[in-house]
From TrEMBL:
Organism in which the protein naturally occurs: Georgenia halophila
Protein name per its UniProtKB record: 5'-nucleotidase
SUPFAM superfamilies (UniProt xref): SurE-like
Claim: Metal-binding is one of the keywords in the record: yes
UniProt similarity note: Belongs to the SurE nucleotidase family.
Domain Survival protein SurE-like phosphatase/nucleotidase: 3-184
Length: 298
């Protein structure tokens, strides 16, 4: 089985090495492809830096990774890495994408903004089994605990039919003998940290960031993580949900959703479009000369 390891903390993160070693020790082929710098908060953004219309690769490796494991950095967001991996951009189409181990928890609905989770969701939306792993510290002291939980979660992922869902794993930064166990968990109402507008002024907005208490939400990922449990939560890649949706008729006989055969209802973009079909994307990622940050329309 072929496993691609990525993250949003950048190619220099030790968390990549932990994930890679889990897959290697389970007998799988591994490649590590991660952003050249930190992309925290990038969600599933398809942004990149380019030169002459091409993605730029960087000769860097995670610390402690075995020399025989292929690894390099890419000047791209983790969501884009997960996306182009599905088109064999890195030499093979992975069977599994492992994203992390993120420095800091990814809990609650705030996972919407996580580059770590975004990479996994991007891969899952293209039919690739995926898992995101995070440890609840910006400076972890207990990597062995993260490794132990990752081993268990990875084995579970391979043994179960997850369809287009992503397994989101959070690990407390405690010694292995202090870990209370692994629990399934729901999403907290937000996450470990929440931003609020502190002040509005002419030409600026000032934000403040505060920790979120999990006292009122037993059974959620943030609540259990704060009490020494590792958590596993299933996330679903974006799907349509038209429950209760009633559209007005546009001509008395036709629903606005039906359109005319062979005609698009709306021309949404005349720019670069990256297809999610079976063929490789045909649009180039374009921007200014050098290292300009650019995006794609999807």
């Amino acid at each position: 089985m072929r496993v691609l390891v990525t993250n949003d903390d950048g190619i220099d993160s030790r968390g990549l090495t932990i994930l890679a070693q889990t897959a290697i020790d389970a007998g799988h082929e591994v490649a590590v492809v991660a952003p050249h710098r930190q992309y925290s908060g990038a969600s599933a953004a398809l942004t990149a830096q380019e030169e002459n219309g091409h993605l730029v690769f960087v000769e860097k490796r995670p610390p402690g990774l075995a020399a025989e494991v292929r690894a390099f950095g890419v000047k791209a967001a983790p969501g884009l890495i997960g996306f182009v991996a599905s088109f064999e951009a890195f030499g093979f189409r992975p069977d599994v994408v492992l994203s992390g181990i993120n420095l800091g928890a990814n809990t609650g609905r705030a996972i919407l903004h996580s580059g770590t989770v975004g990479a996994a969701l991007s891969a899952a939306s293209h039919g690739i089994r995926a898992m995101a792993v995070s440890i609840a510290s910006g400076d972890p002291q207990h990597w062995q605990t993260a490794r132990n939980v990752t081993d268990e979660a990875f084995a579970w992922l391979l043994d179960n039919d997850v369809d287009d869902r992503v397994l989101n794993v959070n690990v407390p930064d405690v010694a292995p003998d202090r870990l209370r166990g692994i629990r399934p968990a729901g999403l907290a109402s937000f996450g470990a940290v929440q931003a609020r507008v502190k002040e509005l002024g002419t030409g600026y907005v000032q934000l403040t960031y505060t920790g979120v208490e999990g006292e009122d939400e037993p059974g959620t990922d943030h609540y259990l993580l704060a009490r020494g449990w590792a958590t596993m939560t299933m996330l679903r890649a974006p799907v349509a949900d038209d429950t209760g949706l009633t559209l007005p008729r546009v001509d008395g006989t036709q629903s606005a959703a039906e359109g005319h055969e062979g005609e698009p209802l709306v021309d949404v973009s005349s720019g670069t479009v990256m297809s999610s079909g079976s063929d490789a994307p045909t649009g180039e990622i374009k921007g200014e000369e050098g290292d300009g940050e650019v995006g794609t329309s999807v």
